[in-house]
Each structure stands twice: as C-alpha cells, then as structure tokens.
Amino acid sequence: MDRLFGIVAFAAFAAFLAIIVLRVPEPDLIIVFAVVLLMVAWDFWLALRPRRHHGRDRRRGP
After folding, report:
1. Average pLDDT, stretch 16-42?
2. pLDDT value, residue 31
3. Domain map of the chain by residue range?
4. Where do the TM regions start and end (predicted)?
C-alpha cells in the first residue's frame, strides 16, 4: 500500500511540475525542475526498495 501511495504522489508531483514547465517555459526553470524531479525519484527509490539487513543497523555509526 505504501508503494501505491508513493507512486501516486510521485505522479501527481511530476504532473504538477510538468504543468508549470508548460506554462512558464524558461530554460533555467526547466533545469531546476528536472533536478528536483530526479532527487524526488531517487528518494522514492531509496525509501521503497526492499531493506536488507546484514547484522547491523546502517543508520547508526560504526
């Protein structure tokens, strides 16, 4: 269920950015939105991929 909500949220955010880019076609704005969309996609990928634990918690220090 989390993946479904994540995909819907990502699609809605991408559609929102696409509407703004189509309304205001400035090259620098398009670049900023592309970078932001890539960062959101990367965060989405990291958050929803299967977790693999190898005996220690990766969020904590050594």
Report:
1. 92
2. 94
3. 2-47
4. 7-24, 30-48
